[in-house]
């Protein structure tokens, strides 16, 4: 059971069919027909389909994919397409599943997107830890190359595309698009100042389209069913289906494909089974550990981009982490803050120092040395990080920590008092 | 030698990407140049791998990460010798490669055991008991320097939490009681806990990750 009852499956159709990662099986179930269809159209027509679909980026920012493609300048300069497969947002594991089970969907999506964007070089930047998935992608790419779906003069259309699987080496920040570009150029993965945005000046200073694995893997379905039909799925400003990675305190953690706009309760309780018996949802991250936490009372919020934004959080990468009432909020805050401290690249002061001090202050609470005023200071540190750095890594800590202080202040204070008495 | 003492710094506490700033700098030493191919022997196999990587990109420096990873497979870590060899083939300075190698968690800048065990201790895994697993793993390898156990940030497998990546093979969900078998498999160079490998997990199985772990042939796995 991968989807809510009655909801359509696009990305996860026959996902567990043995051998789906091979070209033979993928073609047998209609693979690469979308590419053939796209090549009978003009790049503008393909772009129009992508725009009509309303597909929003699945990596975290939720930017409309068709619009992003149209930002690339026309002309014959070197342009690049980079697939962001550096899936490192804590709680997220949907791209891993796609690359492992159906790598050809991704390759097909990349070729179609490259055709629409007019690029002839593409890279898949996959995180170094995903060795199995990178090996599978390499094998699939080799097959696609031999069959003429990638390389020179694809299917006699005149389109040429070189595609390289590039393995990272373990750094969360390389999932940030400009950090990724620097890393792909062979440097430390430090984010760049924006603007110029990558669509204008990205990889090797050329216009670059960067999309997430899930976004690109959705492209073949859009071409197959038409953008108009795709836009009928989901809700008005969040069209289509989404893979949701559910983890933490649930009975059936895993990836589920849902139509955007379903109630969050349906995903957490209906699909993932909810927290263990006798426990209640204390809080949940709707979109990876970077998203502000929501409480149990928010479970009826529809799971789509705008509803979650309205509820004060975000859909992010589509990773729901459930925390039940057996876990102190301080532990959750500490894990989250320590992660961002470790992964801060150190380029911008608010993030480098802010993540560091947040951890120190949380440790002070645990050591019984804090006073309630420290919570105010900690909250103000978070406010001073947001919007003041080159990238959003600092914000990614500040938003959840800020929301935890706001929503669980009583618990923080009780914890503080308890530790103080214990150490007195 | 003029040694400049830097601020004493506990890396385990700061936890950020700033290794080396507590080490004294030798201000009189000339910076290392691009190594001379005539005096730098490079294993043929490694050279071929690095050259193949460089051919993949418009700019040869893009091959830095795959080249360092290849050198690490040969030398066990990014030793000065490994860095020298990569620098020689790529025609870049060793300092440039050092700057890159120190940034990434998977590139080792000090000698480590032959086998690596990354235990994910991020939020989802720790909610499911990863911290106990990590402690058990550390205790079990206390006197075996051949296994390098380290806690790692989210490895992207929260569906099999708590989990570990053992020489690149994802296994989970693990309990501290799985540790002896895991290490035995590792030392005997057998497949690691075959029933718990991610490679055989079904997506669409409601029992997935329950006690009835589904058996599925390993595809593309090792």
What can be said about this structure in brief?
With 424 residues, chain A is an alpha/beta fold.
What are the key terms here?
heterodimer; A: 424 residues; Rossmann fold; de novo design (two linked rop proteins); 5-stranded mixed β-sheet; globular; B: 222 residues; alpha+beta; Arc Repressor Mutant, subunit A; Glutaredoxin; 4-stranded mixed β-sheet; two-stranded antiparallel ribbon; 8 helices
What structural category do the secondary elements of chain A indicate?
alpha/beta
Number of domains of chain A: 3
CATH topology name of the largest domain in chain B: Glutaredoxin
Overall 3D geometry of chain B? elongated
CATH superfamily of the largest domain in chain A: NADH-ubiquinone oxidoreductase 51kDa subunit
Instruction: State the secondary-structure class of chain B.
Output: alpha+beta
CATH architectural group of the largest domain in chain A: 3-Layer(aba) Sandwich
Helix count, DSSP H or I runs of 4 or more residues of chain A: 17
User: Proportion of β residues of chain A?
Assistant: 5-15%
Corresponding CATH superfamily of the largest domain in chain B? Glutaredoxin
Describe this structure in words.
The complex is a heterodimer of chains A (424) and B (222). Chain A has 17 helices and 11 strands. Chain A is α/β, with parallel strands linked by helices and 424 residues long. Chain A has 3 domains: 23-232, NADH-ubiquinone oxidoreductase 51kDa subunit (Rossmann fold, 3-Layer(aba) Sandwich), CATH 3.40.50; 235-324, Ubiquitin-like (UB roll) (Roll), CATH 3.10.20; 329-423, Up-down Bundle (de novo design (two linked rop proteins)). In chain A, the strands form 3 sheets. Chain A has a 5-stranded mixed β-sheet, sandwiched between helices. Chain A has a 4-stranded parallel β-sheet with strand order 3-2-1-4, with helices on both faces. In chain A, helix 2 packs across helix 9 and helix 15 runs antiparallel to helix 16. Chain A is globular, with a radius of gyration of 22 Å. The N and C termini of chain A lie far apart (53 Å). Chain B folds into 2 domains: 31-101, Arc Repressor Mutant, subunit A (Orthogonal Bundle), CATH 1.10.10; 115-200, Glutaredoxin, CATH 3.40.30. In chain B, the strands form 2 sheets. Chain B has a 4-stranded mixed β-sheet with strand order 4-3-5-6, covered by helices on one side. A two-stranded antiparallel ribbon of chain B has the order 1-2. In chain B, helix 2 runs antiparallel to helix 3 and helix 2 (44-54) crosses helix 4 (80-90). Mean pLDDT of chain B is 86; it is low at 4-17 and 213-222. The interface between A and B is large, with 76 and 61 residues.
